[in-house]
Amino acid sequence: MRHRSLTRSLSITSVFALLLSCGAAGVYSQAPGSEPTGAIISPQSVADALAKIDALVEQNKRLENQNNELANQNRELINQMTALRSLLAGQSVTAPATVSNPAELTAKKPEVPTETINKDNQILAVEEKQGLTTPEPAIEVKPVVVAEKAEEKKSPMWGDYSPGLGIRVAETPKGDMRISFLTYGRYLNQLNLAPTYTNSFGTTSNVLRQNNFNMTKVFIKFLGWVVDPKFRYIVYAWTSNANQGQGAQVVLAGRMTYTFNSHITLGTGVDGLPGVRTTEGNWPYWLSVDARLIADEFFRPSYTFGVWAKGDITPKLKYMTMVGNNLSALGVSFAQLDGKPATTANALIWMPTTGEFGAGYGDFENHQKLAARVATHFSFSDENRQSQPSTESIENTQIRLTDGTLVFNNNLFGPGKNVNEVDYTMWDMDGGIKKRGISLEGEYYQRWLTNFRSTTGSLNIPTYFATGFQMQSSAMVIPKTLQAYVSGSKIFGPNGDPWDTRIGANWYPAKNRAVWWNNEFMYLSKSPVGYTSVPFAFGGKGWVYYSTFVLNF
Predict the structure, then answer these.
(1) Is the Cα dihedral 241, 247, 248, 252 positive or negative?
(2) How many domains does the chain have?
(3) Based on the domain organization, do 452 and 534 belong to the same domain?
(4) Does residue 6 form part of some domain?
């Protein structure tokens, strides 16, 4: 606009200068000494002036057109420079036109016909001599190098993942949630077991021998906190697909806990009675996949509804205590309960060296300093015939004699002596050491069955006492990758001394416990426990092989 106004002013000034020069030429063309009577202009001078005025008017029109073109090109250049700056700054700006070649984003000189430029240069030269123009400052436009293809932005990752805890799907100031699951596929071959079993009473039964593939278990859990990070929950679905059609084939349960401090956490819901080490909460991190040694399976309590407390007495001494409905709530209707929740289990755990013992059995963590553990457990329950799960329940803990015979079988202790209630008391001690991938762990059990009662009163049956032990040893042949182990257990009692031994290996392809592959050979000698969802069979004698692939998301 400044250049356009200056051009217009210069054109008008030139016209007035031309008129004044023509008038002056007419006046001074008269004879010297004569008196001027008025401004007399010759016809030729007027014609020349008009011609020059017409030329200037035409020139002014051309300049106006040129100025309009320059203004348009200037606007386009500013738009391109704005788009370029926004692109470099990572902002989203809609460019006025699609640019296929980055070089087009550099400044362009206005394209003006050569003829116009030559004429304009002549006028500007005259104006500069007359001192009528103001030189515009020179603007240096530097070329900008732009990458041919902008790097595509990756979608932001959301949530976090931890093996066994799953992935976080919600996180708010009032709570969060994670989803996790565990499942495993198994091939089981029990065809080398003896086909029949005879118990201590001379009764012979067939041994159920399996040879099949199965997606044995699916365990889906939702866990997190709500309102306060100290108030935590877990809700889960637990299936045992080998028990299709049974009452506890699918279990929906959960629990809630509130942590006041490191010394006390209170909880309610379904949880394991801490009567042995495997029910303290270390599942599924065992050497065998979801399969205890038969001594542990024979003596242990199970999972039930109740309330509990746990925490640290000192940084290296911990406690757990629980009061529940019965020894096993899985597969038992509340209508079967006797209405007196008199089941208790307690644990006292001392870890004198490091104050921890890793997650479960074996030394996957590869302790560089010796980790040691000594613990004792005590359990008591007043059990009755009604409160027992079926023999094929997902977590069967029927009270048995050492040959596997059920305590509540009719006439077991003599004609007419039908046990309706019995007191179960069990004391347990376990210990172990771990260092640099090697572990040695053992457990000792003592169980008393007392106060046998029928529906009419005491049966005067003497105390039934059984004891047993288990030992497990493992080594990480390749740290975080390959683990080998051997284990075994034995039960001692009035009706027989069954035992088992195992040798196996775990391969962790991802170097963590999210996935692993287990292969195991097991030898059974008159197993007093067993059901379809575990690899050992009731009454089994002989070799068993099974291979299991675990996904612990």
Answers:
(1) positive
(2) 2
(3) yes
(4) yes
